[in-house]
Design brief:
- By secondary structure, the protein is an alpha+beta fold.
- The protein has a domain at about 115-275: Rod shape-determining protein MreC, domain 2 (Thrombin, subunit H, Beta Barrel), CATH 2.40.10.350.
- It is built from three helices and twelve strands.
- The protein has helices at about 1-30, 35-110, 200, and strands at about 115-125, 130-135, 150, 155-165, 170-175, 180-185, 190-195, 205-210, 220-225, 235-245, 255-260, 270-275.
- The radius of gyration is 49 Å and the shape is elongated.
């Protein structure tokens, strides 16, 4: 034993000191956490931070996606609501225009009880340097004949039936060069002839010719059918005076008329099949 202590006593003393220091350190760390737990915590801490960051990133993306999806759905709902409102507005405007048209037609029927009228739809419109005509979906089977006047619901003259088939007819408008009507200036009662003119047809205008020499016209004067001869009804509004010109001879004057009927935007018209002659 003495020999063993003599040879290994220093190492035993050193080992004892190391064990003592180790125990002291273990005692210190045991007040907070175990050495293994502390070591594990130190090692896994960066991974926990990274994991928390990844989870937070995914959470943010998920919230962003949900917000975007919600906004898209809300935007789509708002677009549909706007489209529905616009549709309602268009329908209301259409209803209002239809009501106005029906009121005008009722007023026309009340005012002109001497007319027998047939409603017709325009199926074709033709306009060139040589002619201005309309094709309607009414013909002889509906009592329509050549020479019948065609008007709008407001009583504005559109033209005169040129040709009639079984279920169709062709109408020459008031600006066509083959159209010629007895006319009267409403203000002065001056009598003339309203007729188409090649130089004016492209402008949707016609001329009022053969007026008395002393006739004084004003821009805006209303011109109506005279009814003389009984060929056409009297009092149909042809148009308004836009100006006064001198013919090529320089000896006579004529007026330029703009039709009251909007010839380019008509869809429905009325054919006067018969009328009572009013003196």
């Amino acid at each position: 034993m003495k020999h063993f202590l003599k040879e290994h006593g220093l190492w035993i003393l050193f080992a004892s000191a190391v064990i003592a220091v180790a125990l002291a350190l273990l005692s210190f760390f045991s007040a907070n956490s175990s050495p293994l737990a502390n070591l594990a915590g130190v090692i896994t801490s960066p991974f926990r931070s990274a994991g928390s960051a990844v989870v937070g990133w995914f959470s943010d993306k998920q919230n962003y996606y949900q917000d975007v999806t919600s906004l898209k759905q809300e935007n789509a709902a708002l677009k549909k609501q706007i489209a529905d409102m616009e549709s309602e507005i268009r329908q209301a405007q259409s209803d209002s225009a239809e009501n106005t048209r029906l009121r005008e037609l009722l007023n026309l029927r009340e005012q002109r009880k001497d007319f027998e009228m047939e409603s017709a739809t325009i199926t074709e419109s033709s306009s060139s340097n040589w002619t201005s005509s309309l094709t309607l979906n009414r013909g002889t089977e509906h009592g329509v004949n050549p020479g019948d006047c065609v008007i709008t619901e407001s009583g504005y003259l559109v033209g005169v039936v040129k040709e009639a088939g079984l279920n169709w007819c062709t109408v020459l408008t008031v600006v066509d060069t083959d159209t010629s009507l007895g006319a009267q200036v409403f203000r002065t009662k001056a009598i003339g002839v309203a007729e188409g003119d090649f130089s004016l047809m492209s402008k949707d205008q016609l001329r009022l010719d053969y007026l008395p020499a002393n006739t004084q016209l004003l821009n805006g004067d209303l011109v109506v059918t005279s009814g003389l001869g009984g060929y056409y009804p009297s009092g149909l509004v042809i148009g308004k005076v836009e100006g006064v010109q001198t013919d090529d001879s320089g000896a006579a004057k004529y007026a330029i008329l703009s039709p009251s009927a909007d010839l380019n935007n008509l869809t429905e018209v009325f054919i006067i099949k018969s009328f009572d002659i009013v003196d």
